[in-house]
Amino acid sequence: MPATIGQLPSHLEKARSRVGVGFKKISNPVGTYGARTYQSLGYDNSLRLNDFKENCTLEILFCDDEEVLFDLVGTDAPIANALRRILLSEVPTLAIENVFVHRNTSIMHDEQLAHRLGLVPLKIDPRPFEYWEKGLPVTVANTVKLSLRTKCEFNPSAPRDGEAPPSVLYKNSSVLSGSIEHVPFGGHEQSKFIGNEVPRPVHEDILLCKLRPGQEIHVEMDATKNIGREHAKWSPVATAGYRMLPEVNLKTRVVGATAKRLVNLCPAKVFDIEDDVAVVARPRDCTVCRECIREPEWEERVELTRKRDHFIFSVESTGAMPAPTLVTEALSVLTGKCDLVLAALDAALKQRTTHDNGVDEENPDVEMDESEGS
Amino acid sequence: MYEDQHLPGRVRDEEEEMDKKVIINFGQLKMGRPIYQESTGDTHLLYPNQARLRNLTYSAPLYCETKVSTVTIIDPETGEEDVSHEPSKPVFMGRVPIMLRSRYCLLDPLKNDFGLNQMGECHVDQGGYFVINGSEKVLLAQERMSGNHVFVFVKKAPTKFSHIAEVRSVADTSSGPASQLQVKLSSRSGSKGGVTGQTILTTLPNITQDIPIVIVFRALGFQNDKEVMKHICYDFNDDELMTSLMPSIEEAQVIQDQEVALDFIAKRGPQQSATAPKKHRIKYARELLQLEFLPHISTQPNSELKKGYYLGYMVNKMLHVALGRQPPDDRDHYGNKRLDLAGPLMAGLFRQQLRKLMKDVRANAKRIVNAGQDIDLSSIVKSAIITNGLKYALATGNWIGAGGQPTKTGVSQVLNRLTFASSLSHLRRLNSPIGREGKLAKPRQLHNTHWGMICPAETPEGQSCGLVKNLALMAYISVGSLSRPVTLFLEEWSTHSLLEINAGQVAKATKVFVNGAWFGIHHRADHLAETLRRLRRKGDIHFEVSIVMDHQRKELRIYTDAGRICRPLFIVEQDRVPNAAGWRQPRLKIRKKHVQVLMNAQDADDETFGFNALINLGLIEYVDCEEEETIMIAMLMSDLEKKDHSAGYTHCEIHPAMILGVCGSIIPFPDHNQSPRNTYQSAMGKQAMGVYITNYSLRMDTQAHVLYYPQKPLVCTRAMEHLKFRALPSGINACVAIACYSGYNQEDSVIMSQSGIDRGLFRSVYFRSYKEEENRKYGDVKESFEVPDRKTCLSMKPDDYSLLEEDGLVPEGVAITGRTILVGKVQPMEEVEQDENGGGTRSMTEMAGGKVKKCVSLGAKSTEKGIVDKVLLATNEEGHRFTRVRLRSVRKPQIGDKFSSRHGQKGTVGITYRQEDMPFTSEGIIPDIIVNPHAIPSRMTIGQLIECLLGKVSSIRGTEGDATPFTKGTVEDIAQRLLENGYQPHGWELMHNGHTGRPLEAQIFLGPTYYQRLKHMVDDKIHSRARGPSTMLTRQPLEGRARGGGLRFGEMERDCLISHGGANFIQERLMEMSDKSRVHVCDICGLIAIADLTKNVFQCRGCNNKTRISQVYIPYACKLLFQELMAMAIAPRIMVKVED
Ligand code: SF4
């Protein structure tokens, strides 16, 4: 929280630090950021690094390989959003980029098969790898080679009555992601990049294509490293998003039948009744569905707000890397960007001091442009 | 069956003075199976898909048992004859195209899906079309006014007649044009020939003048006035009616005798009969009345009485309308319309071709017999007449009208294969052959009688709006049956024939009509109608016979003819005993036990228990438009339980949603939309891409789109089950937000998620087939597929020939861009060419510098690229080799591609945003599509909002939402279910801006909505040109994208520049950049002069002027115009003046 010199009147404080949720309308979605907005009231609204360092916390609520849920407190939407955007599109992974079709007699066209293969999430830690782009040579450092070879045949031991499902009648009638195999190349050097784990798809049971006897698929694939901004297949998260901490307040004492009604109104079971009085028992569970303030007089009883600097983050990994790792990776991408801006700023400052003081030849906007996204 | 109804044809070669007669009898027809004879002579069964791929016609041979008998007259005096018969033998008459999945189709016995798939067919395809020269042809049902029906119309004031009763009379067995009979009531004005008041006149066929009605009666043998009046009025106490008849009676006072009346008529006939002697005149008139006058009553002699009754009935009906006792007939009433389906259309066509064949056979036979040779039937009967006649009509859609009727065009159309629903809808389409230009609105409007028969939503916009219609889902068109079984019943149930009654009896009884012909009268018609109905429900009378008991007119009309639209209804019967509340409740005849058996039944045709069984058991019956007006239909089953309303119910709707047609049934909640939106969607659903048929990889359609990942809709209607929409869907359940976001979705554009597109959202594949064949030009000059060589070939294109393999075809799997040759083909050049001097010969090859062939290769369209998907090499009907090459290309959605929801809300992509730029909910969900809220209020497509809400519930619950129209279920119910699942009940979500991360001020309506990708894509439309080809004639740039043409700078653009004063720009656009040309004009006469630029000699011959010539620049089109004007002897002059 910013340093408080003096106290703001409560309605202003609310407007500053909360997003108001009315039934028809959201109020103050943006908030107040001017350092001197409340100067006349003796309130310093400026943002100081030390305060930020002190106040910004990240508390993990739930964590496993697939999903991480955490509270990010004490920062603003731009930073939380930067984290989200980086998670979605700038944390690199490996995905199948080039597909060499040797044989494909299935009904699925080569392009479609390649597209489907590209979307299969791969269990490969991308960090040791280098980026590959068109034109660069394929090396152990930037590519993992994979192959898929399968052929459908009649199952000789299948029952003869013809009523059995295709999976029994034929062998390999469904091509699953599990049949994608790693093709080692580059000798010992490769273990530097892939580690001890054999590269494989995250899930074994993704249906890629269906075959019938006589049909055959034989493809080789190159998995390369890139980011989600290039193509969604490199996005490491299924989704990443946040919501602001909801706050539910009862403006008046809600008792008796009205209290019962309130408890029933809420689909998330936020309210309880204690001694015939409604209390807000689990405000965190509130989905802000606004059902409790839908009827006109209810807006006088219940107040819904969201805390502007408290984000409940959820990150779901596609499986290439554990979800918590993704968050740290995203943060390091973010710091990398910050370093870039700092370096650029330093350079600009240096330029300015060498060029005589105060002569402002460079358009300051140019520097601002580089800070985009951080 | 239809073909059994027709008597075998008979051609007789009669020459009176001959001593020998040859009689050729054509007997029973026999149809073979669809077979095909290769040019090699091999014969094999022809399956439809082979016909499609090889450009063949799916047809079967038709044979006729034919007998030749020779009659030799031994003694002309005694008439003694010697008759010798040859044994009858089948003769090949021609090939008849077979409708797919009809009884003669090879696919008909292949009942199961596997069998159909083995034959390369799609198991959900319904058939019902023909394959002609490889293309699928549908015969559109043709609407027409029903024949043998008396219509009374009121004419607008300033005409000669105030009322007209007319009938288009067609005899059952005849095929010729209808004979029109009109009875007209003259307007009040005028007293002519001493008669004052409104007289009644008749227009008889072939007679040029109108004949007073009573004279026609006299000619029919009604000699005294009383008889005549009795057959018109029936009741002499009806003074009003009698009075209105008086002027007509007076008018005919002069003619009292039948002969005189006949003479009177004949005199007004065509020239040769009018001037013939009296005997012949009378004979002519008699025959006219027998054959041409009301032929549907009878064409036999001695049927004057019946015809008199009918004529009297017409007059009676007209006078009733004139006296205001009855309303005039409604031209647009659907009961007065008949639809000609493929059956009658093909029958008419066949009859025509057969007649042509007979004529030909007779001529040939005559020639052979006269030459004294023996008749060889197979050489006389030219099978090509029927084969080609039928093929021609089906291929072009030109139906030559029988005997003077105008030729109908567009009867057969190429089956639309864009989406499965579009094919289905095309097969159920109707066409009214009324001029598209007519500005009369009535025939285009929805009529009350269309309820349940014709879809109220599905019709095109624009000039054919309301003229092209589509059948409702359950509508059925009667095939027609013989009227004899019905008339037998009528006779049995004491109907009095007209011949045995006195005209006076008609007034008290009910008139009974069968197919428009007056059959007799009955005294207890109510009872009769009830009995007939019971017999129909039992199956003793054909189920499609309609029984109309018209109490107002005291008529019982029975129809057995073909082409009436019918629809099935539940039969309702009143309980025998009153219920607890003391009233007799009406109940459906179908009961729970039936439904239970029905649910276990395998398919609809199941004889033991399917839909047909319901009809056989009398639980459901078909009712046509006219009968529909004599019954009481409950809309819902629950209506039957309401005491106040339920009194007279006789039937109940199966479901009110059945009023919609194929495309209308795909719309969810159409009952919540503004009606034109449903019409728009009905048109748009046909452009949506999906899986148009399951065997698409085995077909070579010229253009086809297949969606990569089609989904069945989350929100379905119950009719979709039967339209196979779930099996072959045409859209995706996209997550749609209705929001303003960044402004890139203004004016009906949408924002689409690029990440979604990356993952395959709305990705589709586009197929295009090219066709090429080795033609044989003249003589033996034969083209051949090979790789053209620049050394030996003339006129090679500047295209890429490198992909061709030795056989001259591209291999499968290679990538193609525009300007690539797909099929290499060369034509040998003519060997010898006559020299100019006439003497010596010089080969073309010599002239072409040693080149012996000409390149006539086929290249891909310049704008298209893709991968060669399939190459097919076969022989066509002429035995020539021919090939089809199919290209495929993937189409990812991009800016400018067109999408639409199922509510007539179409839009193009305005921008694609990646996932991180899209707004997101607290769950991290982003929309796939963002549409602008401004699309909603003015268009009132509430259905889309409800679909979205129900879609949200369905996706959360993992169920399918039911959006069938006219069912229970309200928005509140859906909202409640959403609330129960922890969502805002009205679908609103709090979303965050993807760019800034801050909450959006508005709450966003978000949920899955079924979206369709339409076939219009920018890649097929994008076009620009700097310079390029121009037309030969005017030297102006070509038109159109396919030819690399320019963009039109039209009148309005010109006007705009003029108003801006941009003279130089106009000059630049319209001349410098277009067709600037230089001409030399004579300064004296102003006409174009001769200019030889190489010798620098200029002259104007007319003025003998070689010095005063000016050079001017004008558009070439202007020069052309001047020369064309000069050709018309107009001299346009360009007078040049040099400013000093
Ligand atoms: S907004 Fe919805 S979830 Fe939150 S407290 Fe109100 S009713 Fe409960």
From TrEMBL, chain A:
Record key words, sorted: DNA-directed RNA polymerase, Nucleus, Transcription
Residues covered by region (Disordered): 353-374
One Pfam assignment: RNA_pol_L
PROSITE patterns for this protein: RNA_POL_D_30KD (PS00446)
Subcellular locations according to the entry: Nucleus
Domain (DNA-directed RNA polymerase RpoA/D/Rpb3-type) ranges: 67-344
Database matches in HAMAP family: RNApol_arch_Rpo3 (MF_00320)
Protein name: DNA-directed RNA polymerases I and III subunit RPAC1
Organism ancestry: Eukaryota, Rhodophyta, Florideophyceae, Rhodymeniophycidae, Gigartinales
From TrEMBL, chain B:
UniProt cross-references to InterPro entries, sorted A to Z: DNA-dir_RNA_pol_su2, DNA-dir_RNAP_su2_dom, DNA-dir_RNAP_su2_hyb_sf, RNA_pol_bsu_CS, RNA_pol_bsu_protrusion, RNA_pol_Rpb2_2, RNA_pol_Rpb2_2_sf, RNA_pol_Rpb2_3
GO BP terms in the entry: DNA-templated transcription; miRNA processing
Keywords tagged on the record: DNA-directed RNA polymerase, Metal-binding, Nucleotidyltransferase, Nucleus, Transcription, Transferase, Zinc
Enzyme kind, highest EC tier: transferase
Gene Ontology annotations for the cellular component aspect, listed alphabetically: RNA polymerase II, core complex
Gene Ontology terms, MF aspect: DNA binding; DNA-directed RNA polymerase activity; metal ion binding; ribonucleoside binding
Domain annotation DNA-directed RNA polymerase subunit 2 hybrid-binding: ranges: 664-1043
Residue ranges annotated for the RNA polymerase Rpb2 domain, each copy included: 148-340, 413-477, 512-573, 611-656, 1045-1136
Top-rank lineage group of the source organism: Eukaryota
The keyword Nuclease appears for this protein: no
Name of this protein: DNA-directed RNA polymerase subunit beta
Species for this entry: Chondrus crispus (Carrageen Irish moss)
